[in-house]
Every structure is written in C-alpha cells, then in structure tokens.
Request: fold
Amino acid sequence: MRPKGYSRKIGAAILASTTLFAAGVAAEEPTSPWRPSQNQFGITGNIETPSADMQPDGQVSLTASYFGGYLRNTLSAQLLPGVEAAFRYSILEDFNSPARVQPDLFDRSFDIKVRLLQETERWPAVSVGLQDFLGTGIYSSEYLVATKGFATEEFGSFRITAGVGWGRYADQNAIDNPLSAIDRLAQRDNNFGLGGTVNFGRFFAGPDMGIFGGVEWETPIQDLVAKVEYTGDRYIRENRFNNFDQKIPINVGLQYRPLENIEVGAYYMYGSEIGVRLTITGNPFRPLSDADLEAGVQPVRPRDPVPGNPQIAALGEVYDATSTDPTRADFNDPRLASVMVHRRLGTVRWAEAIVTARAGDRCPTELAAAIDANFGLIDVVTFSKADNKVVCTVTLRPAGQHAVRLTSRVHASYPTDWYDQPEQRDQLVEILAEALAEENLGLIGIEIAPRRVEVYIENNRYRSQPRAIGRTARALTRTMPASVEIFEITPVENSLPVATIVLQRSQLEDQAGRPDAEQRSWATAKVESADPVPWSSLTGTQEDFPAYSWNIAPTTPTSLFDPDNPFRIDVALEASGSIEFYPGFSVNATVIKRLAGNLDEITRGPGSQVEERVRSEIAQYLNEGDPAITRLTVDYVTKLNSQIYGRLSAGLLERMFGGVSGEVLWKPADQDWGLGLELNYVRQRDFDGLFSFQSYDTFTGHASFYWDTNFYNIAMQVDAGRYLAGDWGGTFSMKRRFANGWEFGGFFTLTTIPFDEFGEGSFDKGLFLTIPLNWVLPYETQNQYSTVLRPLTRDGGARLDVSNRLYPIVEDEDVGNYREIWEEFWQ
Amino acid sequence: MKWAAQVLAGSLFMLGACSSSGTSLTERLAPELFDLVLGDDEVDPAVTQPLPRAALVQIPFPTISLQTEDDGPIGYAVAQEVNGPYVIYRDSVRRGVTMAGGLVTGTAGLGRNVKAVKTQANDPVAVPTVLSDWPARVTRSYQFSRRGAADFDITVTCSYARIAEERVVIFEVFYILDRIVENCANGVRTFENTHWVDADTGFIWQSRQWLGPRQDQYLIKIIRRYVAP
Reply:
C-alpha cells in the first residue's frame, strides 16, 4: 500500500505527451517521388551521359534506344536507394569487319552506379559508376559525376550535371588522369578476352581522364524535358570501319512522358544522327492498380457476454476519462484513503483505490486523474469502498480501455456441452468449410476441442498469406461455439504445414475495427513452426484424397541472346496433371506441345570445351522432342519434425534428365536462415522427350545456405556442390524481395571448369525478375510473371531443374515475412 | 474503362488457361470482363429510385442506404454485427461500411477502403452529442489500406458550422434536423462533410461523408437506426 502524499509527479505533462494526436503532425497520402529520366544506355542520366541522380527505390525499367545503327536494350533496377544496376543487350550494326560472316556485334554488358552523396540545398548529388564492368568491355568506362537542381522563377527548373570519366569518356578533349601516377593505373588494358569477368585492374585506369556534362530543363509543357550534353565519347571502336560519323561531341533533344510509366525521347546526336528512346518503367511500391475489388471481409462476430461474469462484476460501472482535464483534482482529497498499483495483462498499470465514506456512491472520476498525476502513467483505476464493494472503474488511457474490454471478455466461462455431441461437431465443420469456401479458401483438416480449434487451410487465392489467415479467423469467429477461445491456423503449402498462427479470439473481438487493430493483432499473434500433421486423424482429410488436379495453359518458351538470332520464341501448349493419393504423396506429369515459333531454328553448338554437354544440346531437344514429357515424377514431401522438411522425387525430373532426387531442409519458422541438402542420381534423357535415356549419368547435389538478411528484404542463397557436368563449385544468389511479391536479383556460379573451357562469358551468371499479376490487376491472384535472364547457356555450372524444391515452398512462411505483410490481416 | 477492359480481355484470351481448380486468371476474370466488354454502360433506372418505406420496414434489422450521387444508384445495407461502438453494415455482396455513431470508420468492398478512423473521445460525429455540446474542433485520423502497397493515414482537424434547421425526408419520413457542415483540413487538403443532426440527441440521421482521396463522397441515410440493448 502506498501512502498518500507520496512525491507528486507531473501527470499533466505526461498526459500532454500521450495525447491522441501529436500536434503539428499532418499524416497524408504518400505522393509519388520525383523520378529522373534514363539515358540511351538505360541508366539514369541525360542523353548518353550518366547523371548522379537515382531512380526511386525499387524502380525497374526497360529501355530500348537506337541511333546510328546501335540498338541497346537495357533492363535496369534501383537495387537499393543509392545503388542502380543495369543489364544491357546491344546490337551494333557493322561493328566488325565487313569481311566477317557476321559483321554485326551482339553484346551483353552490366553497369552499376553508387551514390556517394545525396543532394542537399547547397551541395550536389555525387555518384560513381562503372559501365560495362562485366561484359566484353565494348562500353567499358568509369565515371564520377555530380548533379544539382536549380529552380528559377523565370525559366523553371534545371538540373545541371558535370562529371569526369575514364575509358570511353576519355576519348577526346581529355586531361591527364591524376590516378595514372599509380603505376597500375597508368595504362588501360583493352583486351577483354572471353568477356564476362570483372576486370578490376582496368577501373579508372589509362593516361587520360575525360569530362562530360549537361543540362536538363523542365519546360513549361507538363512532362516535357529539354536536354543538352557534352560527352568525351568519340565512338572510336565503332568507327574502325567508317560506319559512324561523329561531327561534334554534343547531343540535344527532348523527352516526354505521355503516361506515368512510359517515357520517350528524341535527340539530334553528335551532329549527324537522330536518336530515339523508349522506356517502360514500374515500381514495386506503386502498383499499377492499388484498388481492391475482392469481396469485402466478413465482420468478426463478437460473442455475447456471459451473464454474471465475475470479471465484469469486479469492474463495476466503467467510465472513460481519456480526455479529462487532469488538473482538477488533488491527490490529498479526503475521499481517497489508499492506492495500490499493479501491472496486469503485461504492461497495463492498474490502480486499485479505496475511497472513504465521504465519496458516497458516485464514481469519483476526477480522483482517477489525480492518482494518475501522482503516480505517473496509470492506465486504469478501480475504486472500491473499505468493505471491498466496487464503486466503478475509470480508464485513463487507450491501454486501460483495452485492458478493461479484455478483462470482461477473456475470462468468461462459456458452456462446452456442445462438444459432447458428435453430430454438432460435424455440423460445425460443414459450416466452417462453407464459410471458408466463400472466401475461396479450402479446409484441408480440422481438429476441434472445447476451447481450441486447429484448422489447416489451402490458399490458392490470396497472394498475401495474412489475408487468408485473417479471413479464416473471421470465419472462425462466425462459426465456432463461444467457448472456443484459441484459433490455431495452419496454411498448407504444397501439402506441407509450414507455420501455425495462434490467435486469441477475445483479442480479435476487441481489435476488430479499431485504429490500432493491425499492431495489436500482430503483437498478440504467435507464429510457430507447425508440427507434422497426422493427416489420417484429422477430420475432413479422408474425403479429400486422392485429389486430382489438372491445368492446361499456353506457354511461350524463349531463347535470348543467341548471336544468330537474339530473340526466339515458341508458342506452346502445356498440360499438367497431378494425383495426390495422400497429403504429400503424389504423381505429377507435364507435357508440352509446340504450336508455332522458331526455337527449332537454334543451330549453335556448345561454344565451350566442356566434355559433358548437359545443357547446350537444347536445339536437339527442341527439334526431336515434340511433344515432350517435361515431368513425370512420383513425389513425396513431408515434415520430419516441426523444423525439418523432406522430399523424395523419382522419374523424369526435367526435360533433359531423369532419376532420383532427395532433399532435406531445416528451416524453423522463427529463424531467418535455413540449411538444405539435396542429392540426386540422374541420367541424361534422349532428345525425343519420351522415356528413353542416353548413356551419361552422374551424381549431383548441393548443400545450401539460405538467409533472409532483413536488410531491405534482401535474401541470399549459397549452394555448394557438384553440378551436372561433374564440375564442383558454388552458386551465389542474391535477390531483393518486396512485400507484394516483386523480386529481382542475380546469381553467378563458379566451378572447377576454367573460364577458357567454359567458353564465352567465362562463367554462368544471370538475373531474375518476378512481377506478381495482382500488382497490375485490382483482383487477388497468385499468378505471376517470372523470368531468368542468362546471357549465355553453357554446360558448366548447370544445376538439375527439380520442380518442387523445398525452400521456395516454405520461404514466405516465417515470422519475418509475416511481420512484413501483416497489415493485410484485416483485409 | 471499357477500352482497357477490351485490351485486358484480349490479353487474357491470348494467355488463357483453364484448370481443375478454376483459379486461373482467365477463369477468374472472364465473367466480370464479359460484363465490362459486352455489358451495357447505362445504369438501370430502377436502382436509382428509392424503395418504398413500406418495403424497407420489412427488413428486421437496422438499415442504411448508401449513394455516391444524389440521383445515382442506391445501395442498402443492414447491420450484420455490432462490436463495441461499431455497427457493421453489409449489403448482399458484402460491400458496406462500419459506423461509430454517425461516422464511417471502415469500408469493405468499395475498391479503396477505409481501414479505421482514430477519433478523439469527444468527436461528436462518432459519439452522439447534444448539439449544444459539440466542441469547436476535433482531430481525426483516417487510415486507408492499399492492396500491394503500404497503408497510409490522413490526419485532419475538423471544425463545425451550423447552417440551418431543415426539414429532411428520409425514405418518406420527415425529420426536423440541423444541417452541420464539417470543414476538415490539414494544410495539404480540405474536404467538407455534411451531417443532418437531431439537435436534442446528437443522432446523425443523414450525412454526406468523405471516405478517401480517391473515393467519391457517400451519402448515408439511416433508414432504421441501431439502438443498443
């Protein structure tokens, strides 16, 4: 018991600091950030030269530009707020000697630009960049560039860029390279060999350093920008056979954005050429459609209070004093006898005050404010008389309101006699299955107890799993008897129960519709690794198996970057079917039939000295295998315990190999990293795509490390082991993942095959991009567009293409990912 | 909109797929696209005419009407749940609003939805207050959800002006109500809500409310009010 007259605290000050709305803070709808333009190389810049500006975080752009016989197609991405990267595929007409069979050059190149300083009111932005740092080096150059914006009342806004460059930027009007004082940087090696490797020694090297710069002017016409620039690039290599006449090192032009995501430019370049550019761009953070035309959510159905609930009686009449002036009462008021403060429901500070007879029967709400001022940060006060008869309860803060609501709900004793009637339980399952079907969710299994229910759901509709879980929870509040207080919801992914989300019904009832529902629901939800499920003992499972499914869809296999024809495409029909005899145990088949296209025209050989041609015989597979079975497997996936998953597959595993594949993955749901091991014995399939095999067989397999870094949602993966051609090595992959399903990233593989044996490109590498279709559409769908861009397909570093690897199935089902996307729980 | 639907329909036809689950994009969107591409743009005049009160009183639940334009289509929603201060109204296709007092604090199925509204304890639109006790101004924070992107809040301060006492007809029933104009602003935006209030009880029988930056204002009429037991 704390005596009256204890040192006073300034409750009013605390109250003021915890008022509902912080003064002066005006929350508003986020506006689209300013977006600078791309240049002819597809990276942020002026016409040909780069600027220090960066695209908005996450921006992905596809740029096609053309001038003077040079076509450049660039995929660029703002990997991080200060890091921009690009992959470019260029066709340079007549670049080679006219005497050669193929005078045109097909070139792949990578760029990266890093911001060193952000623009301020006084100082410009400064960036450093490497152009064509990983390629054949045709466009090889480095630069240091500064850009500053100015706004004038008379002429509008300008952005002025100035920079120094090495390599191509130092072709003309150059100055001495100050870095050439370092011996290693005095000369620039222009022998790029097979390309595809990072030539660190070349960066910032050479006797000269060029200058470049330009001005961009936002004209009074909306979205029209005028540009002028000077560049030190003379196109020396392109002009070896007199096919490009550069008269002046200056470019001028206009750029226009007819739509938010489309940009076009037209330029007069180098005093002799007309150039054009088209950029199509998008940003994961800004969906093309953020509307939501899904059916609205069903409301949470709160339970009726139990008459005579002792918890409610213990509160008395409840008053809200969250907005009461705290200065009107005195803690030394003679009506107050004593005060004791407890912590309840976690951190709620709950005061129990005894009042004297002078208080009468009226609730002394003003004394609650005095108690708060004296003790500091009291959330709720219950007043009682000396004989323990409760007078009332006064809430002083939202936490107190919440505690009172919960107290009256959570301890209610609802009857459980319904549980003794099996037919009533069966009826509940039926009603729940119907309610979930209305939400386009499947009920795979359910286990009901008097105060707890476990449900296993299948979500083929909502990209965001919390959305499916939220709708399931709402359905449970509407269907389960009042005594069922705990909801355990387990989404089942490819027959694997990955994580279980445990929710308290009374919390849901209290949170629904309130402004803090999202935070509170996350704070009170538990995400746990799901235990292996004894499917045979679950209600509802028996009727669903064996389960049949099929799918027929058009597909468009492509071949990119073949110098004979850099873009080939087929239109084909792909039919797949599955019989799942028991959860996790299935037979799966996929057949593809080509309808039209030109993939069968591929004639290129392996292009490497690798003995085992495990991937480069694609032309034979396409020519001789139509239709082809691309998968015919018996598969079994299961959970070995709550944190370990297992997979066993046998049959025609992919188009080129068949055999046996086994995998084990350890990935607890509350851990942001995991370990995997995959072992395969495979034999190369015949080109006809049917059931026969060639003579080559091998053991292949990898140990894998998966890590979600929690840094800008970047996920990393390292696979080390033996590849299909018998080479040993490792693959390093990194991708940035966005809450709405976007992904972009890259990978490279280094193996025991030397670069010169690997062939052009030196080693296997590539980029991947995934765009979810619900970013485009106002409806929920799990469909997505995914592509892997490999500059070249070679035999070294080739990995078996198994359809149902475990990590992609489970990677979204962990605490970190749920926390990231939990805001969809109530949608 | 129709041209976009036609382009989308053409694209989906090209990429069309079908499956045993019926969850392919083509299967999902085909019926709605069919309506958009081939359907009639004209609004059925019948849905713009109010239902007779005699028909509405047959509904045994608290009922409201929703309308974006005075002469536009009228939707009807009934109270499906009551949870604390919130009354949740839904129509037959699960669109609807959640109301605290006369304030819409949530919407569902409207395309761009209000997730919740944070109000002061003395917000007279959320807590029925005798008109003479209405505060000069309140601060209110609207929370919006955006599918596939971060949610956001818009916080505004609202002040009230009593315009006039008016005779208002709500589905054939006459009320004498005070028209209160609520001006809300935050330095970036301003908007105006109008409430028709029973001065003695503070109950809002009719209101025209802002529900978001890219949402039409909604005219809400209380046909049968919810009375707490």
Confidence is low (pLDDT under 50) at residues 1-25 of chain A.
